[in-house]
Amino acid sequence: MDDVDRLRRALESWERGELDKALARAAESRAEFRTASGLPLQRLYTPLDLPGFDYLEELGFPGQFPFTRGVHPTMYRGRPWTMRQYAGFGTAEETNRRFRYLLDQGQTGLSVAFDLPTQVGYDSDHPMAEGEVGRVGVAIDCLDDMAVLFDGIPLDRVSTSMTINAPAIVLLAMYVAVAESQGVEAAGLSGTVQNDILKEYVARGTYIFPPRPSMRLVTDIFRHCSVHLPEWNTISISGYHIREAGATAVQEVAFTLANGIAYVEAAREAGLDVDVFAPRLSFFFAAHSDFFEEVAKFRAARRLWAGIMRDRFGASKPRSWMLRFHTQTSGSTLTAQQPDNNVVRVALQALAAVLGGTQSLHTNSRDEALALPSEESVRIALRTQQIIALESGVVGSADPLGGSYLVEKLTRDIVAEALAYIERIDALGGAVAAIERGYLQDEIHRSAYRAQRELEEGSRKVVGVNCYHTGEDEATAGMELLRVDPEVERRQCERLAALRRNRDAGAVARAIANLERAARDPAAGLFVPVLEAVRVRATLGEICGVLREVFGEYEASTGMRGGG
Amino acid sequence: MDGGRPIRVLIAKPGLDGHDRGARVVARALRDAGMEVIYSGLRQTPERIAQAALQEDVDVVGLSSLSGAHRHLFPRVVQSLRERGMDHVLVVAGGIIPREDQAALREAGVAAVFTPGTPLGDIVAFIRENARRREGGG
Question: Domain segments of chain A: what residues?
Fold first, then answer.
């Protein structure tokens, strides 16, 4: 009798014995258990749930294909994750102060939040920018703002992640120009531009141009950086916003990797060799609250991407197969009610990200369902990471949940379901075509509505929201919230007016005309003309304005009209 | 409102904020509750929202913003509606809106502010209760 048979018989005997007795004494609290994303959960997992399990094929060793157990051989023993809090508000001066505070508190990398006008390519004095300047991030109109933002911060020693997508090429050019003025060469810069336009159409909304010219801008950054910024992550392919918009864990993995496939295809069509650009692709996921599902999700994403890059695209360098990722704890799980409870949610989510092998991490602050985070709240969030790193002991071994029957089964389930989605997207003609016809968006909206219904019906519990209430008034009492000074907008507009008076207008006009010529020539690279425009103090709005003229603007269809 | 046409609602995203999960979920819930719902899509100016409200002859405008621009944008929508003679339109709002801003928004003509965690049923009930009051219950 082999081991499997022995185990099966023992399990059956346990079920008929101890289990049945326990169930007769007290029924389970629910007839059916599922993960937050709806994957079925059994009461117990054993080796029987992993038929045909092949350790070397499915897991391998850390730093080795398929990277299920992590991308580095020593994981956090050798290389701690980067603690990188997304920050930015008001003017460049204010954000510079917050950056220095975070670095003083032991943060190890910077992450810039830009305000919405910057993200959609408008100067602070554009009519559409009214009321939005400096609100959700820092306002950057020109190179001088960027220089203030990084004043006193040595760019050869700090890595910087910039959440910028449609105008990523402009902000990256500004960063390069600021580094030059600090005496730091582009080749010595490390960091990331998000540069993931596809998820903007799907979930985040800060698009400017239509998909096709946008893909040209994306691949242009790949091309330029592969030569001039070899340490730069040229894209952060983001599931975070897809998940936050309502997607399930499976959809998050599937849609992110489908977008990744579209970028690889676009870059190859632009004539780039996969092993030249693929090592600099990076990813960004959310960490939600269903602990084991999240850990499994990260492992599944790594396993899938390794296979896609090696087998589908024929990449030959191990670096090209590795899915390296940043994680942010989930903003949408934060509650406005009893905000201190969010500290606990964030700690659990952050732990899932670490057990899932993240390369860098942002922990949300407890007050973010109410406002931008206060300094005190940000400090608690950063301390949460430090406690996990230094006190919990979880950093001592790579992939400590590897081999858990439950986690391995969930990893397999997510791999299988995500692959099925990717096949469906392939059948629709790939991610760009699927987005153009609204397929990803519809899937996400459906999941979001389902989750909300479950919350309302009470089958999904959120402490402080649909159970364990306190009186509403004590919920946020005594909490100091951050307020962005409404004067920021006026000051920023004044600064911009002064810039326009004092710069060399002829040089700006020539640089913009050069950029326009390059944009009209599909074979021309755009990074260099953008960099030249930035250097002579052309503004972000002027640069994006000329690109708007050439490329046109994207108009989303809402898919929403009509009655009951 | 019994016997009349269903309540018509415009859900709108003023400003540059791209977060529309909440707006879409609310739009769908109102539709499931029997209302006629139009969603504006992203990046609308207050004037465009008021114009759409007029053209669509809606009873309710629901505004959503998570970017902090609500204090600037929401009162302008109310103002633009009034300029078009649409004083009877019920304006409600949702998003990340600190409590201390809510009184100012109410004063500016926003009838209710629904923050994260509000049950959809509360929003439906509020709209049923308050839409068309000023024209005598439709």
Answer: 55-389+396-460, 502-551
Q: Cα-atom radius of gyration of chain A, to the nearest Å?
A: 24
Cα separation, B68 vs B94, whole angstroms? 11
Would you say residue B136 lies in a domain? no
**A487: closest CA of chain B, how far (Å):** 13
The whole-angstrom separation of Cα A118 and Cα A125 is 11
Residue A380 has, within 13 A of its CA and on its CB side, a CA count of 18
**Which chain A residues contact residue B34 at CB under 8 A?**
564
Query: Nearest-CA residue of chain A relative to B36?
Result: A563
ipTM confidence score: 0.89
Structural domain boundaries enclosing B51? 8-129
Domain-located, residue B28: yes
Separation of alpha carbons A42 and B77, rounded Å: 52
In a domain, B70, yes or no: yes
Q: What CATH number has the domain spanning A55-389+396-460?
A: 3.20.20.240
Residues 6+ apart with CB under 8 A from A238: A194, A196, A199, A204, A256, A283, A284, A285
pTM: 0.94
Which residues from A are below 8 Å from B122, CB to CB? none
**Is there a domain that residue B79 lies in?**
yes
Any idea what the CATH number is for the domain that residue B96 is in? 3.40.50.280
pLDDT in tens, chain A (564 residues): 588 999 999 999 999 999 999 999 999 999 999 999 999 999 999 999 999 999 999 999 999 999 999 999 999 999 999 999 999 889 999 999 999 999 999 888 899 999 999 999 999 999 999 999 999 999 999 999 999 999 999 999 999 999 999 999 999 999 999 999 999 999 999 999 999 999 999 999 999 999 999 999 999 999 999 999 999 999 999 999 999 999 999 999 999 999 999 999 999 999 999 999 999 999 999 999 999 999 999 999 999 999 999 999 999 999 999 999 999 999 999 999 999 999 999 999 999 999 999 999 999 999 998 888 998 999 999 999 999 999 999 999 999 999 999 999 999 999 999 999 999 999 999 999 999 999 999 999 999 999 999 999 999 999 999 999 886 544 555 677 777 787 999 999 999 999 999 999 999 999 999 999 999 999 999 999 999 999 999 999 999 999 999 999 998 766 555 544
> Distance between CA A148 and CA A145 in Å, rounded?
5
- Listed in sequence order, the residues at least 6 apart from A157 whose beta carbon sits closer than 8 Å to its beta carbon are none
Q: From the centroid of its chain, how far is CA A438?
A: 21
* Alpha helices, DSSP H, located in A428-464: 431-436, 439-457
Contacting A residues, span 319-348, partner chain B, CB-CB under 8 Å: 332, 334-337
Q: Do B36 and A563 touch (CB under 8 A)?
A: yes
CA–CA dist B116, B94 (Å, integer)? 8
Domain count, chain B: 1
